[in-house]
Please model this.
Amino acid sequence: MKKLPLNLTIGLILTFMFVFMAALSFVWTPYDVTALDIGSKFLAPNFQHLFGTDHFGRDVFSMVMVGARNAIAVSLVAVGIGMAIGVPLGLWSAATRMNGYGLMDEALMRGNDLIFAFPSLLMAIMITAVFGPGAINAIIAIGIFNIPVFARMTRGAALGLWSREYIMAARVSGKSMMRISYEHILPNILNILIVQATIQFSIAIIAEAALSYVGLGTQPPMPSLGRMLNEAQTMIFFAPWLGFVPGGAIVTMVIGLNLLGDGLRDLLDPKLRIRAAQTRKGEDNNVTT
Amino acid sequence: MRILIILLSIIFCHNSASAQSKISLGLQLEPPNLDPTSGAAAAIDEVVYGNIFEGLVKIDQNGNIKPGLALYWEISSDRRSYVFHLAEGVTFHDGTLFHANDVKYSFNRARAVNSTNAKKYIFAPITNIDVFDALTVMISLDNARTDFLFNIGLGDAVIVSEKTASENAFNPVGTGPFMFKDWVRGDRISLVRNDNYWGDAPRLERVDFKIITDPLSAYTAMKAGDIDAFPNYPAPENLFLFNNDPSYEVIVGLTAGETILGTNNKKAPFDNILVRKAMAHAINRQELIDGAMFGNAAPIGSHFAPDHPDYIDLTGIFPHDLDKARAFLKEAGLEKGFTASLKLPPPIYARRTGELIAHQLGKIGIDVEIENMEWAQWIDQVLRNKNFDLTIVSHVEPVDINIYANPNYYFGYDNEDFQNIIKEIDDSGDATETSSLYKLAQRKIADDAVNGYLFQLGKYGVWKRGVKGMWKNYPIRSNDLSAVYIEGADE
Model:
């Protein structure tokens, strides 16, 4: 069996660890995260409470499990929305450009730029001002932010394919724009999209944490990593675990996803693989000469 | 080398001398303007009351009425007219001599139809203001009013000069021991000593109110020595760190802020007294105080400050008892529980208490959904449109039990008996009678479980050891610095 790239291995392990913890939290957490017990507040990490307890006496480990679950759920749906809308939009945009409807492509892409111009946090504040704060609105805000990312990436990659001979053959045989896009273009850019989705996923986790940090994401009593960080701010001088644990969880999750993305790119992009092999050979040559 | 040492010592001595007659105070909220006679924000009084502006009488840190610009006064036997004898040789900061006409002007301005005063009710009973001479003024009331003297000690009733009244918002001119110097928006407000002050000369030369919104920055600024005192430190959770440090002093006092679980009395099921009683029994005050305020607050059983002389302890009417709570819910036919929304404004006490309240009410089957909101949304939805089930808020006005007599106030308590009690208090001129009426009023709203009565918000004073004369309590929101000094400072 071929050896997996190292970054992919580490990325897979880290990501799997969090996904497992998040999935486990559906059925089991060490303690109930909504049960407050003031009597056991600010307990330092120990064998009963692996990561200690917070100012309401809640178990931080359980909160991180559920918080990670919420972060993953929000990010998954948000990236899903971004892909579900962004990818067809990009395919359509590329198809119209290559088939003589350049104006349509322009309109779509400038619309994209318009959405792209709003930072996701601003968008989220706007949405929550109208509909109230909550996880659903965080999903919408992050999802909207993801649409132009996928649309651009898809369009760019698709444009490069439309001039290939096999696409021309398909066009000559009378296939419609839509069928070509879905039968020939999409499968060939899927690897790039998967890599991009992994990266977007990690960005979405940070965005969710940022929204919760300012109080616009998941609402109490549901734990959220960003809000845990916010609440820990004035307590880190005497209860440092309250800041380090959720902060560390976010960092580890994001690093894991980024490594996973990098590893997937190395694995899936044949061009890159060849180029990497060539460089390696070149370096070897340099060394020998 | 020797020259260097001499130079250094000069610099050092100079620094220490000037540093000690100056004080930097931390302020969490920046005031919107500096005119206490038009704005309602407590942050205005925190800067100007007793420092820049003075009233006829002055409220001290224990809520007592002390002479202000009026050195003494006579009250007629029917308690309907007050003759104030004013201090001599008082000038406004712009040099204008203070005259009894300024009193007349200030009060007439405040009670005028187009006045923007936030507490016009203070001036409503006034029928006439007669200036006898430059230092004597008589105020006549429509009826005997017990709280009149206290009310004219509030920031809303300070004396302003006709010449400068319109500009007080951004260039305040009063008669107080300190003069306004400058205001760097978002950063600081500076005052300097008024060398022509009529009373005892203040010992501080300069006061900087530094605006520090973030509780974490408040901690680091205090620890780094950037500020000398935080009159109302925003993070009770790390107060103990200052307590453990010998270079700081921590004084926990009380504010006039009754923190309540505001309940919409006009909305089902909260219009049912049984439901409200069930909730009252479900509330565990000690857990709230320990959990949300880290032990730094006082339990209350009604809407009245524990440090007020007429206060009675009613926390025993509805002790924490889940069995009784469930029994009341059953009696109301809601033993299966129900869902309620809890709309929380931004202050940290509200957010933390809210999570605990949700937890406590959850135990008797009330499923509380927390909704955090900004002040603008809260004012619009809760205060103005009464579109809420439950909320948590601190009522920071002194002696504000009369808000329960207003049936259109946000919690919608409409009770004729209570309204009559307040009317009797308004009309009563006798202190003992008023006192017993206040007690009756406290008991009435506690018995009716109008709102959930949680705790009195504490005032957390933190300052460097050696800072003396700061207020312990906040009967009104004031940081009166006239008597503050730093021990060991060169005079």
User: Anything to note?
Assistant: The radius of gyration of chain A is 23 Å. Residues 6-288 of chain A form a domain with the MetI-like fold fold (CATH 1.10.3720.10).
